[in-house]
Design brief:
This protein is of the alpha/beta class. The chain is built from 15 helices and 15 strands. The protein has 2 domains: about 200 residues, no CATH class; about 220 residues, 3-Layer(aba) Sandwich (Rossmann fold). About 30% of the residues lie in helices and about 20% in strands. The protein is globular, with a radius of gyration of 22 Å.
């Protein structure tokens, strides 16, 4: 091969990490006075989602401790649609892998796919609520506010989406995505969220915002009275923190795809792809012409939803796919193309050689290459040396060492991104997860 040499580059994003996450949660909840909304001894259902949220176990435990200190009886339930292969046991298992179990949380975990109907919204959308949550005296949500992988709007992923897709479980998720196909996902989320608020069951939510390093940058207690407006404000704020690929690329190599990384397996607004099959649609992202995904995250448990957005993958990724879990998720989300298996070859080297011929350049040395571990971890990033002038012109970027050839092992697979650079990065940021 005659690819350009590579450079390992640090993206020096602002570090907004909270020094005491649990303490910040306690402070926010005390200010919000959620406990004044229920009588002493009330049963509180705490909804927790399934994304790879930093410090989620510590945050959830702090919420549980708050309610117990106020004399309430909290329990946790999975606020998920079709995740965990669409089973109650699978959804409880997802929480367990994040450290959310009875022994660590100090309260019961109640997982069920059963729902109760709440009637129709003004838009004609029948709504559903998790049976355990419906039987409680009040529901509190814990969710990360961030951009959504499927659309752009003033409300995307967050507490409103959790009230819709999460509280509605698999039954609701299937029904809502069908309506979203016609009226749009934002309109669907708002419609169902408002219906949920009308029940009087929702006490409020704890919104989590993460910085570009995936650190917990802010936690905000959101009362029901201002939830819709406040979520719009929080989304605008966190979008301004977003980490990005720093320039246009011909080929982006991604080490792993997975549901723990993004709802679409890879963040569409990082790779500039659409779950509907289009590419380079998002104004917030650079142009990415080709995407090569090397493997599937172990924490995705075989769910390869989103892999259909890649142009090429390895045989070993295909061997890791749990088709049942993947198909349930993609069909429930009305995005069947996301479960399609792309062209695949045995080794990384062969994949890169094959896809390079489709990048529109005769000289391989001119192909603009980037490599990341996943779409949540954008530093360090490996960039081809033919991008040096753009790297040096960007004040957020720092070249961490001399150029080097693409490094493959004896069978033709890429070696890990230089461990020494990871260690340097972690030490400089003093990251604690």
């Amino acid at each position: 091969m005659a690819f350009s040499k590579m450079l390992t580059v640090l993206q020096n994003f602002p570090d907004r990490r909270l020094p005491d996450v649990a303490g910040a949660v306690r402070q926010e909840l005390e200010k919000a006075s959620f406990a004044q909304r229920v009588v002493p001894g009330a049963t509180i259902a705490i909804g927790v989602g399934s994304r790879g949220i930093a410090n989620i176990a510590a945050i959830t435990r702090a919420v549980v401790d708050y309610w117990k200190a106020k004399g309430a009886h909290p329990f946790i339930f999975p606020a998920m649609g079709s995740h965990g292969a669409g089973t109650a046991e699978g959804q409880a298992d997802v929480l367990a892998h994040y450290g959310i179990i009875e022994e660590t949380m100090g309260c019961p975990i109640r997982s069920s796919l059963e729902t109760v109907p709440l009637g129709a919204t003004p838009e004609g959308i029948n709504t559903f609520l998790d049976r355990h949550a419906a039987g409680s005296d009040g529901i509190m949500l814990i969710g990360r506010v961030k951009w959504h992988t499927d659309f752009e709007g003033r409300i995307e992923s967050g507490l409103f989406k959790m009230m819709a897709i999460g509280l509605g479980k698999w039954t609701g998720a299937q029904h809502y995505h069908t309506h979203a196909y016609k009226i749009g996902l934002e309109a669907t989320i708002r419609s169902i969220g408002r219906k949920m608020l009308e029940t009087g069951k929702i006490l409020g939510g704890l919104a989590i915002l993460e910085d570009a390093y995936h650190n917990t940058g802010q936690v905000t207690a959101v009362p029901v009275e201002v939830m819709e407006q406040r979520e719009e404000e929080l989304l605008a704020l966190v979008k301004s923190w977003m980490g990005k690929i720093p320039m246009d690329l011909d080929l982006l190599v991604i080490d792993e795809n997975g549901k723990n990384i993004s709802g679409a397996g890879m963040d569409t607004k990082v790779v500039n792809r659409s779950v509907e099959g289009g590419s380079n649609l998002w104004s917030v992202a650079p142009r990415i012409e080709r995407v090569f995904v090397r493997s599937l995250s172990k924490q995705s448990y075989g769910n390869a939803a989103g892999i259909g957005m890649a142009d090429i993958v390895t045989d070993r990724l295909v061997d890791m796919i749990d088709l049942k879990s993947t198909y349930i998720n993609t069909l429930t989300a009305s995005s069947p193309g996301c479960g399609s298996i792309p062209i695949h070859f045995p080794t990384d080297k062969e994949c890169m050689e094959r896809i390079a011929t489709t990048c529109g350049k005769f000289d391989q040395a001119q192909i603009r290459i980037g490599r990341i571990r996943n779409t949540m971890e954008l530093t360090p990033i490996v960039l081809s040396e033919n991008l040096r002038s753009e790297i040096e012109a960007n004040p957020l970027l720092e070249i961490a060492g001399p150029p080097y050839d693409l490094e493959f092992d004896s069978v033709g697979n890429l070696l890990p991104i230089k461990a020494a650079v990871h260690e340097r990065l972690e030490a400089s940021r003093h990251v604690s997860r």
